[in-house]
């Protein structure tokens, strides 16, 4: 089996953005007149189900604010503004392990794509701030503001693979966010979680290298494939 495409998330995969998301959420809470203030564990708990880009949504259910759609929209918009301003003022550098993975994958003829639910302007700011104009040649597909809630087979992964003419089983998605990983799995991609929360995760040092991904992809005894193998036997 070949790996023809690797989809990378931005939060926690290409960039360490936790502190920036935390500061943006707390600034948005303050500006909205809410008493909520998050610590890093609170952000991670919210990101476990919502992803970092939309983690602030988990705080809304506990507030009367949830009934005011206009204020909810403004809370999200303010959080995105705060985050965008932070990355524009001080563009974060890509994580070394991710850069090594990209180099090795490209040298092996693999396409690298970015699929994220971060807003498109923030996605562009992160990538251009780190890679400059080169990001247009490094990444085959870049999608910001992705919606991972649609029906399987019609979402952003399916559209990207269809545009490239690649079968889902020949692609891998690496992300920290449950919504993106679930959408990738439902589309038929191999998935690798590098989330800093939870017990059932694959840590970056183990599977962020291209050689390790190829070994994982070719083994019939990975967690996702073991049940299928046993049924076939």
UniProtKB/TrEMBL annotation:
A molecular function (GO) held by this record is:
metal ion binding
Q: Name one Pfam family in it.
A: Hydrolase
Name the keywords, alphabetized: Carbohydrate metabolism, Hydrolase, Magnesium, Metal-binding
Tell me the cofactors it needs.
Answer: Mg(2+)
Q: Which InterPro entries match?
A: Beta-PGM-like, HAD-like_sf, HAD_sf, PGP-like_dom2
Family assignment? Belongs to the HAD-like hydrolase superfamily. CbbY/CbbZ/Gph/YieH family.
Give the PANTHER family listed for this entry.
6-PHOSPHOGLUCONATE PHOSPHATASE, HEXITOL PHOSPHATASE B
Protein name stated in the entry: HAD family hydrolase
Organism, by scientific name, is Rugamonas aquatica
Upper taxonomic lineage: Bacteria, Pseudomonadati, Pseudomonadota, Betaproteobacteria, Burkholderiales
